[in-house]
Write a structure and sequence with these properties.
The protein is an alpha/beta fold and 466 residues long. The protein has 16 helices and 22 strands. The strands form four sheets. A six-stranded parallel sheet has the order 3-2-1-4-5-6, sandwiched between helices. A six-stranded parallel sheet has the order 14-13-12-15-16-17, sandwiched between helices. The protein has a five-stranded antiparallel sheet with strand order 7-8-11-9-10. The longest helix is centred in the N-terminal third of the chain and has 14 residues.
């Protein structure tokens, strides 16, 4: 695959780095000379200094031979114009545009591939989807869902009294007598594919594959516990906060019409959602758009605001301001004051790693959600889901086999998978199978596995065709 990326900002850089590590051919276009210099010094790809809306620049980047054109420049308009230009001149590449403006990305015209854009990625919407998914599953971990199976993968950080630590994993599994699989262990910056004799340590993060009921039992045993989330405090009413509020209030509509009316009255009286923003005009807009919510115009950083007893009665705080350091600090501080659950939104991956030490329940990385969405689009067809973990060093892939795959008809023990690759389940019709060495791969199997980023190219050859 040959991919041309417009924009060497954080998302463009991370995407290029990930594709290069997978063995893809990448060209990066950037108009900012300083960013070009950084990319040339650190990325093993073609870097072109110029405008993405220039045919000359696009041709220098090899757009005529590209399989995909991904536009993630800072301007929505540039991204849309660049995709339109590519589509008008070249028929081969699929076009993907990052569009931040929700009015653009939700437009019916955009859904009809107008302007030459095959796929629109909205960072705020992608991050908001991750927040709502965490909310639906109790805000205790990241959640990875799969196609047509009840299995899900969720992370858990082991405390000093954890049942899992200082014992062989096989012993813990025997004691718990539940159907679950620990797929990967993160120990600082090191990742481990565990075996039966692996001994886990305090502070390790583990990814557990199980159904929801088993995960609930495990977190109860780990004394993480559960609490119904009835009242939510949302800090930040900007674009992403607005979309989160839309989604939170939309959750209340999953009831019959008669009950819905009663529920809306009760929710209105209880003010289930409390939004705080420091901009007066924005608060006026939010109050008009969300009459079901309580909207307060305050600066969360003002002395004494977070100690308000009324705020501390909330079950969850979501920090979604444009200041990502503030999001981390406010979410962590709220938990020390007694709010049981906290979700923080960040941009930089370094902030995401830092959040693990700040007692936050879920941290959503905007860059990661966008890159995952783009990668899933680039691998469309056989690929059903893509999740990056361990700061992108490893990926969870779910895919259907090509009819020409060399795996079909072979036992798993005879298939030479790349190092540090683990098949975690196989979905066959209505069955979900935990793999074992003598299992034979069949046509139309849906497979989920964990692998190192560097192994993607080899896997694609193995899994998709002869």
């Amino acid at each position: 695959m040959y991919v041309v990326i417009l924009g060497a900002g954080r998302v463009g850089y991370i995407l290029a780095q990930q594709l290069i590590n997978e063995g893809k051919h990448v060209a990066l276009i950037e108009i900012d000379s300083a960013k070009v210099k950084d990319a040339v010094n650190s990325l093993d790809c073609l870097v072109v200094n110029g405008s993405g809306t220039s045919l000359i620049t696009l041709k220098k980047a090899g757009i005529h031979k590209a399989d995909a054109f991904v536009s993630v420049a800072e301007s929505d308009e540039i991204n849309m114009i660049a995709c339109s230009l590519v589509r008008s001149e070249f028929t081969r590449p699929i076009t993907i545009a990052r569009v931040r403006n929700i009015d653009y990305s939700e437009s019916r015209l955009m859904n009809k591939k107008i302007l030459g854009i095959d796929h629109v990625i909205n960072p705020e919407i992608e991050a908001s989807k991750a927040v709502i998914l965490a909310l639906k599953y109790g805000v205790r971990s990241d959640v990875m869902l799969f196609e047509n199976v009840r299995l899900q993968m969720r992370d858990l950080t082991l405390g000093r009294r954890s049942l899992f630590i200082n014992r062989p994993l096989s012993e813990v599994r025997k004691e718990l007598d539940m159907e679950f699989l620990i797929t990967i262990v993160l120990r600082g910056s090191i990742y481990i594919i565990p075996e039966g004799d692996t001994v886990l340590k305090e502070g390790n993060m583990i990814y557990i594959l199980s159904n929801e009921d088993v995960f609930e039992q495990i977190v109860t045993i780990e004394n993480i516990g559960s609490r119904e989330i009835n009242k939510i405090l949302l800090i930040g009413g900007g674009t992403i906060g607005t979309y989160i509020a839309d989604s939170v209030l939309e959750l209340n509509k999953d009831v019959p019409n008669l009950l819905r009316k009663l529920k809306r009255i009760l929710i209105y009286k209880k003010k289930r959602l409390h939004i705080i923003d420091k901009d007066y005009e924005r608060c006026k807009f939010l109050a008009g758009r969300f009459p079901e919510a309580l909207v307060t115009c305050q600066d969360i950083m003002d002395e004494g605001v977070m100690e308000d007893p009324g705020l501390l009665k909330n079950d969850l705080i979501i920090t979604a301001t444009g200041n990502h350091e503030l999001n981390l600090i406010t979410g962590s501080f709220a938990k020390t004051l007694g709010i049981p659950r906290a979700i923080a939104l960040v941009i930089r991956n370094s902030y995401y790693q830092m959040s693990r030490h700040l007692n936050l329940d879920v941290t959503i990385s905007g860059n990661t959600t966008v890159v995952n969405s783009i990668l899933k689009t680039l691998r469309s067809g056989n690929i059903k889901n893509v999740y990056a973990i361990s700061n992108g060093k490893m990926e969870v892939l779910e895919f259907s086999l090509s009819i020409n795959s060399s795996m079909i008809g072979k036992q798993l023990k005879d298939i030479r998978l790349p190092k540090n690759t683990l098949i975690i389940f196989i979905s066959r019709g209505e069955e979900t199978l935990i793999p074992h060495g003598s299992m034979v791969i069949e046509k139309n199997d849906l497979i989920a596995l964990i692998t190192e980023r560097e192994s993607i190219k080899k896997l694609e050859t193995l899994l998709m065709a002869e």
